[in-house]
Amino acid sequence: xxxxxxxxxxxxxxxxxxxxxxxxxxxxxxxxxxxxxxxxxxxxxxxxxxxxxxxxxxxxxxxxxxxxxxxxxxxxxxxxxxxxxxxxxxxx
Length: 92
Known about the structure:
Blueprint: E1 5-12, E2 15-22, H1 26-47, H2 52-91
Antiparallel strand pairs: 1-2
């Protein structure tokens, strides 16, 4: 079954970005756009960063660290599930 496509415009950092996306993912894209803007606003005010590029770099670093951490957690969970499967196989 083909996914319906739609165009949306996200306003990120005071610039409109028009994207063609799967309609089922519209809410995710809108949340992501708001999330980015929230992070930029927080870094700008909390750390009083003058140069916007520095602020954007800090937001990217923050998001990358979150992604890497989640990937590490996923890998550990996969190892735990594998060990649990092995243990259950031995007991039966």
